[in-house]
Amino acid sequence: MSATVSPLLLALREGTRACHQRLEARLPFFSEGFDRAAYADLLGAYHGFHAPLDLLLGAYQSAERHKTPTLSRDLGALAIDIEALPRCHALPRIDDEASALGVMYVLEGSTLGGQVLKRAMAERLGIDADNGGAFLDVYGPLTGARWRSFLERLAATAPEPAAQARTVEAAVDTFTCFERWLEKRRVLAC
Ligand code: HEM
């Protein structure tokens, strides 16, 4: 996907590569025995992380980037009671634009991997946008455009080293908090 490659993007990629690899290896989407019930549990755990983060990111991103409404719709389709789901409290700190950008990088980037997961879940579990899989393609045909506009925002930030370091740190923290939360919810494969 061609897009604006800024020094900050390169630093984010380098800083989080190992985090992504580790989490991807632990997620159960491609595990043997991963079924609809396990998918519903996993999506419920995603909701517990995204719902409080959407609130924390409120001042830094427009509502069109909120993931919780789509997750809630999917969970409804899977007959999961959203009110009963636990929410994560150990979240990355978001106290300025620099840290918000780091958190957003992780959440926005996950919409790219979602394209792979969307196809896999349709094939393996028959789950699509109407019966619990809308989150995997949360932006639909706007996925590429939303990613590019986020990269433009990254590229337009001041190249101040301390702020850039805070962005990368927030991105790493986001991966770490998410992995710990999924582990706590016992939805990881290993
Ligand atoms: C099994 C699960 C996952 C798979 C198979 C996967 C796969 C991918 C793939 C193929 C890309 C590159 C897409 C492209 O360049 O067009 C990508 C990018 C990315 N993914 Fe994942 N992903 C997974 C889970 C996640 C999760 C859970 C997160 C974060 C919560 C995440 C965060 C990212 C980020 C930040 C990028 C953007 C990297 C960049 O271009 O700078 N991924 N993923």
TrEMBL record:
InterPro entries hit by this protein: Haem_Oase-like (IPR016053), Haem_Oase-like_multi-hlx (IPR016084)
A Pfam cross-reference name: Heme_oxygenase
Name of this protein: Biliverdin-producing heme oxygenase
Organism: Pseudomonas soli
Lineage: Bacteria, Pseudomonadati, Pseudomonadota, Gammaproteobacteria, Pseudomonadales
